[in-house]
Structure formats: C-alpha cells, structure tokens
Amino acid sequence: MAEVTILPQVRAFLERSNGQFINGQRVTSEGGETIAVANPATNEVIAHVAPATNAEIDAAVETAHHAFHGAWANTTPAQRGLLLNRLADLMIAHREELAQLETLSSGKLITLSRAFEVDYAVAFLRYYASWTTKIEGRTVALSLPSATGEKYTGLTLREPLGVVAGIVPWNFSIMIAVWKFGSALACGCTAVLKPSEVTPLTMLRVAELAIEAGIPPGVLNVVNGRGPQAGHALMTHPEIAKITFTGGMETGAAIGTAAMQSGFKRVTLELGGKNAAAFLPDTSPDRTVDGIIEAGFLNSGQVCASAERCYVHRSRIDDVAERLGKRLAAFAPGDPMDDESQFGPLASRAHFEKVTGSFARARARGARFIHGGGAFDIPGCYIQPTAVLARSQDDELMRQEVFGPVVSLLVYDSVEELVTLMNDSPYGLTASLWTNDLSQALRLIPRIEAGTVWINMHNYIDPAMPFGGAKGSGIGREFGSAFIEHFTEIKSVIMRY
Ligand code: NAD
C-alpha cells in the first residue's frame, strides 16, 4: 500500500464554501440548495457546492463579455500565449493538489489524475498557447474582372467569436475543460465553463490559478449547477456566441437545438461513442487480449473513446474468451488514492446504478458473461471488469453506450462482414484495427465511419491530432489546427483602389 496523504490545502479547499468563480473572485450564494460532492470510493460526502443562481450566470457572462472587448482584446497574441503557458506552469506546480481534488471527487486513480488531469491537460494548454501567434487571415486573388479598370483586393480576417460557454462532463473534469477554454482563449475569446455537477470542484481551483498566472479577471469564469438549470441558462444567454459541449448524445441533441433556437449560436458537440475494436485473424490471442484491455478498461471504461464492441474472428474466439476471463479476474479493486491501485470505482452512485442496471437487463435476457457482470462486494461504486460474449449485434450491450468497464465480444467470419458490423451504429467517434497486415489496414481505413481510427492501438489522443465524432458522435473537431475554425469567424474584406 502506498496511500497518498491528503494535502492540507486540499482539505481546506473541501471545507470552504464553494460555488462559482466570476470576474476573478469566488462567489457563493449562501442559504440555498447545495450540491453534495461524494467520494465514490467510499460514498462519503466530501464537499458541498452552491449552484449558480440566474443572476450569477448573468454576471459571469457579462464579465466575460466585458473582458472580451476590454482586457483580453488589449493583450497581444504573444502575451496571450505567455499567460496560458504561465497557467500551465502553475498547474504543474500544483500537480498533486489538483490530482488529489480530482481523485477524491471522481474516484479516478491518483496515477491517472496526475497523468491526464494535469500532465496531459498541460500539454494541451501549451499546444493551444503555441497557436496564439499563428492565427491568420489570407489575401485572396479575386475571380471577377473589374469593368472599369479599377483594382480590387480581397483579404480575410479571422476574428474571435466572443464569449464561449464550455459545458463539460465528469470523466475528465480538468482535461476536457482545458480543451474548451484553452482553445477559446488562444483564439481571443473569453469563457464561462459549466463543470458537471458530479465534479464541480477542480475547475474552481484552476480558475484561481489563472488569476495567479496573470490572466485578467473575467476571461475565465466558472459557474456550477445542474445541466437543465445552470447549463441551459448559460448556453442560451444572449451574449454567448459559441457553445462547446462534451457529453452524452441526448444532451448534445438538446444543446444543438437550443443553440439554433437562441440566435444560431455556433456549436461544437463532442458526444458519446459505441466504439469498435476489430481484431483481424492474424492477431494472436494474447495480443488480442492486450488490445481489448487497452481499448476497454482505461479509467474503468469511463472514456468516450473506449471500445465497448470488440470483434474477434471465429477461429480465435474461444482462446481469446478464456484468456480474457483470466486476465480480468486478476483486476483487484483498489483505493484510488493509493499509488499502487490498478482499478478504481465509477465516478458516482448514479452512474454505478446505471451500469449495474444494464448488466441486470443483459443477464435477464440470457447474456453469457465471460467475467464480471456485477458490483464488487465492497463499499463504494466498484464495478467488476466485465466481458460478455454477444449473441448478436442487436444486444443492448452492443448498441447502447454503457460508459463503464465492459466489453462485448462478437464473432465475425469475413472482413466484409466485419466492416458492416463496425459501421452498424449511430455513433462514429473512434475505432481500432488490430493486425500485422498494414496494407490491409490502410485499405480498410476509408471504409470505417469514425472520427479517429487507430491501428494497433486504442485510446491515444494527441494535441496535434484533430479529435471529434463522425455521425451521431458530434459536430466539429478539437485539437490540431482544426479548433481555430470553431472559435473564430471569417470576415471578408474587399477593397477598391
Ligand atoms: P451529460 O450529457 O449527462 O452531461 C454533460 C454536461 O452537460 C454536464 O455538465 C451536465 O450538467 C450538462 N447538461 C446536462 N443536461 C443539460 C442541458 N439540458 N443543458 C445544458 N447542459 C446540460 O454527460 P456526462 O454523463 O457528464 O458524461 C458522459 C458522456 O460524455 C458520455 O456519453 C461520453 O461518451 C461523453 N463524452 C464524450 C467525449 C468526447 O470527446 N466525444 C469525452 C468525454 C465524454
């Protein structure tokens, strides 16, 4: 056991009154309803957060609007890059504090909190910071001749959109928030973030660090509260120019509709997935099992890019199922605050109930569990790592996103059948192909309906590679230079001389 000692500043943060972070200051309305934050490893309530009132949401958007036209507009692109990098430095300096806050509220293994919520988040922030000085328009050769001999010149300007509402899920509460505000701020926009009600704490601390870094008050604000109340009020506010949302498909549909109905706000939607991992017949059973574990069990499966559908050739299925069952049996649940733990709880009691409910329905319909299929018999939201032999593509576990530590294995016979099965889903976020035959993989890539296709790997993201969904998994791309299009508007200028 290598239990991590909770830092005094983390204890103090949990004990204080937390609510919103607006115009560089903590704001907490006293006396109203509070949202309880529970540690899913123990189910103990560790903090309470006051949800934002409508007046607080108005204040957050107004201050962001003011900063957009004032303090942030008055910084040069180079200064903006420097300030984002300073925030990245401070996040590294506060690495353990941020990681502990995240682990205590989401149950994420402390090793993953350090790696993803700080180190990866910082890598993304620095990547966005590196773009501030490279956002450019173009000069354009005009197509139509001038009738009078006068000359025309065309140029395009890329202008920041304005105030961005970033609506964030609970599975990576800092990293996904950085995807939102890092890209917005780099383009010259300002931001109001709405974290998930499950993980409302960590971004409050990051916003404080932003002030310490010298980012002007009002540029980065955080409002808490439930989606249909605080989230809805924020995103439909008239001064919001753009909504960037990560979360479930149904919520995404509601947000897309509201964005159009409240003034045609620009919108980026990063939604769920029911992602496929396909193991071609030349992949050995051991490599297949390694691949399934890589694809399906990171962060107890609470990763939008995770594979929950695994396609295994008929000639390999018995071997793979037997070996996978043995490997999963060795996953021991551990305290996420222990450096040596390998397998943590789900993020909340509500999510635990949702996942166990889907297992119960599958069992009632005669599902064949290779391993798992229920909760560990210990306190906390611990679900067994689970693998199922699917009977058909129509099983609920093959169609609906569970967002937990579960994979369904389905047999295929031919590569043609495999492609059809992989594409048979309303989602299209990610997919992976596992094979030694790279030329076959390259021929298959154009036929796969997904925003990201991995070859011999799964769950790898990089700031330089555009990420987002095909089909029902969303609209738009984050990362790479693609983000610039989503936070700026092109203005065409045509001049006669
Ligand atoms: P969710 O859709 O329930 O909530 C996401 C956020 O939206 C939360 O902050 C919530 O408060 C808010 N919200 C809910 N209803 C709202 C409404 N009517 N108006 C405005 N805001 C509203 O999702 P979740 O359970 O927090 O996260 C899990 C989902 O997120 C999964 O489907 C997962 O696949 C997806 N996800 C996608 C990506 C990606 O990059 N594509 C990354 C991580 C998670």
Automatic annotation (TrEMBL):
Protein name: Aldehyde dehydrogenase family protein
Aldehyde dehydrogenase domain segment(s): 29-493
Residues the record marks as active site: E270
Keywords: Oxidoreductase
Superkingdom classification of source: Bacteria
GO molecular function, one term: oxidoreductase activity, acting on the aldehyde or oxo group of donors, NAD or NADP as acceptor
Stated family: Belongs to the aldehyde dehydrogenase family.
